[in-house]
Amino acid sequence: MVFRTDLALENTEPSRHVTRKEKDCTVTRIDEEGNAYVTLEVQAISDHIDSDNSLLTLTAQELTALLPEKGSVLVAGLGNRAITPDALGPLVAEKILATRHIKGELARVTGLDRLRPVSVVSPGVLGCTGIEAVELLQALVKELNPDAVVAVDALAARSPARLGCTVQLCSAGISPGAGVGNARPRIDESTLGVPVVSMGIPTVVDAATLAADLLDGETDGSEEKIAPRGAQMMVTPREIDLIISRGARLLSMGINVALNPSLSIQDFEELT
What we know:
alpha/beta; single chain; 10 helices; globular; 31% helix
């Protein structure tokens, strides 16, 4: 049986994990083939409010370490806004402060002349647009010539315990839909020509994977019961709306702070 997951933490041996504690968060770094995978294991986003913005700040710091120090950045919110477990990327995109168009006299009189150029897009999904996300991003990268792309998407986990409790960042890009068995073309440096950092929070677990996990991997030939007629089913927590809304704030403000640290979180919330 194939165990679906987008998390590097669940796909590698613990001996390769470099772990440290940061307040109420466990940070794990995995280096593989020149790429870095950083996982933040946190308290359930649906149950705990990041009242002091410590998790937000930590997310921004980890993102900063993966991005070029200078230059313009294109933020892409991947996913389907109409499907709650997949709406993380589009909701993050809505809260990103776009600054690429603030130039010249406008930038000077508004005091925003030192901001890093940021552009943002929510490319939608193939079934709604007829366009692969990578195709749209390739066209935008060619036109805008950003120095890096930040791609945000909802992820799949193997363990239900990680849903809404994990944030993953990586410098290897992303293959949208891979965790739910609908892999689209990869979005990474090889396809876009610029560094791609991906971010996400797991929101679903494959039903077959969940069943196998609950049975300690001993499905005993019961695949047909788990997935009748080969139907693929995904499971998401009942508090998914809260996970998505709080997760979107965490990632969007983390990106904003990482890209333009001269502004405060309150500034970003007022401007977006």
